[in-house]
Amino acid sequence: MGLQVSGTRSLSDTPYTSPEKTGSTVAQAGVSATQPLFNRANGISIEQAEKALAVSRADFEAAEQELIVRVAQAYFDVLAAQDALATTRANKTFISEQLASAKRNFEVGTATITDTREAQARFDLATAQKSPPRTTCAPRASRSISWSAAPA
Known about the structure:
It is a single chain. The protein has 152 residues and is of the alpha+beta class. The protein has a domain at 40-144. The chain contains two helices and two strands; from the N terminus they run E-E-H-H. The chain is rod-shaped and about 160 Å long. The protein starts with a strand and ends in an 8-residue tail after the last helix.
């Protein structure tokens, strides 16, 4: 878009023809504007931007789906660890009752010391196995949900 203005004034003095001075003033003004109706370079830039937007949306949706899968996996890992812990606790309770029964039977004389020691060994094994589910639950959940920035 452009703007154009111009002006002129002229004064003439002719002493041989007339004793009076003659003059004239001419003023001109104009406005000129240009607006392109079609610019192919802008059209190509728009197409490229639209394609980049589509790629970015696809990347975002893929990242969204990956996050959903990771959260679901972490949730199910936690549920599995809780189930394993509950099973281990129930097993320990049962073995503890067997140990108490073996000790009573040994005191009464209906069982041997070997039976008592085997029950004690099973109880110790159950106690040792109780710890891992509690300690593996947190690292499994934190490993499943790791926040990372994807390259742009």
